[in-house]
Amino acid sequence: MALAVAVGAGAGLGSIVFRWCIETFTHLFSGHADYAASPGASHPHLPWLGPFFVLLAPVVGGLLYGPLVNRFAKEARGHGVPEVMLAVAQRGGRISPKVAVVKTLASALTIGSGGSVGREGPIVQIGSALGSTLGRMTRLTEARLKLLVACGAAGGIAATFNAPLAGVFFAMELILGTFSAEAFGATVLASVTASVIGRAAFGDVAFLHLPAFHVDHVSQYGLFALLGVVAALVGVGFSRVLYLIEDACDWLWRGPEWLRPAVGGLALGLVLLALPEMYGVGYPVLQHATEGGYAVGFLLLLLVGKVIATSLTIGIGGSGGVFAPSLFIGAMLGSAYGAAAHAVFPHTAGAVGAYALVGMGAVFAGSSRAPITAVVILFELTGEYSIILPLMLAIVLATVTSRLLSRDTIYTLKLRRRGVDLEGAAQGAPIGTQRVGSVMEPLPAPLPATTALLDAAETLSLSGHGALPVVDAAGRYLGTVTAQSVGEALAEEPDAAPTRVGELAEPPAAVLSDEPLAQALHGLLSAGGTGVPVLDAEDGTPVGWLSHQSALRAVHAVA
Predict the structure, then answer these.
(1) Staple partner for 10: which of 23, 130, 480, 539, CB 3.0–4.6 Å?
(2) pTM beyond 0.90, yes or no
């Protein structure tokens, strides 16, 4: 608990320093507090350049952060969250402490010099690096070290966006990938601590100031549902374009990596000259769009421009997040969709701003596939509860549609392109690449579904397994029954308790004989670690048994 509070405090202070760096560099490179609020204006200290100074700003910024990242922390390049996910999943939560310093400077320089990226990825990586460093200094176990990394991520999100709940769910849904009472308690402590510090520095105000939205007609839910599906298409498309442009930059560039951001900055400068609203994070433009301040055609132009500008910033070696660009793209999509819906259904469509808000959450959910985080963070960023039902509807549909369209999210796709599968074994690991069929044990004798609980209890106590398969009268596999479930049933009132094991049998997560062991271990853990039947890949019948003991035998098995 004390360490979680300390990490939260560090993440809160880190977010203050990070935002100060962004504001300083933005004012230095553009002469404005946020150039996106006055697009096309000249630099007050270089008036003779007019708006053309945006051609040079990304080049100068690239000359500063390019050598910094290449020399001290190459993992600080890009949007940051995938590196934290990888550290938790396959590196025991170990993140180099220098990442925090390099990421702060590199991301602030990228955003300040015009890079069209967000600040959530950097602050997640900064906070996580602080948590990892503190955990290793205090010699924590690996499980606790991973938890402190998640605490750093939660604190960073909470302090930066004044969103303590969103920080908690972001850490558990995306970083840890699991929910538990211990993880929830620790991340809440870190998030609250960071939020208190952030609010002391930035004030307790909502991220966006929007008028109250209401659903005035039930038919609007159909429009919001369709927006969720469309937003998923846009979110997945954003992921594809992001890495397509990164591939193109890799193919075109033949010089030293430290010089790549500066040379690529010329291309980014041309985009900023054509569409200066793309300078930096772009929150003023997002706010104006939610207020209905742009025509439909210009909204679509801003949407396409943000996809290209963000992808180009990452592709040339910039450092920054993709969360804020996802919100920006969603706001443009939602505003354009809402304006079109209002033109077709003027009496029932409702306010355009409501569609912008729902579009923000749906595009983020479609690209990241983190629905709980999307719902909570949109509520906290805007303070709008009146739109929660259509927001939840659109986000769930966007998540489901995204899952149907793509195996990966915008975060995991970056890792898979590098040959890393978060659900698979780490490269060079002695366990994980083997097939389940090569390490499984013989299938224990199954229990008939009609077996009385007292008889089942005796059999389980003598079996050496914490669970046993259950079959019906025809020998068909029904699922497994655990010693825990039998013990709990026997402790209930006799009149209300089950009497046969068939009433307690539940099929665990399917583990197939031909799948990699690393993937099967997730199913074993979800079953409580008591053991699971291994199913034939063709007909689904049990052919063996997998336990942690048999998994350890994989060290001596042939891959």
Answers:
(1) 130
(2) no
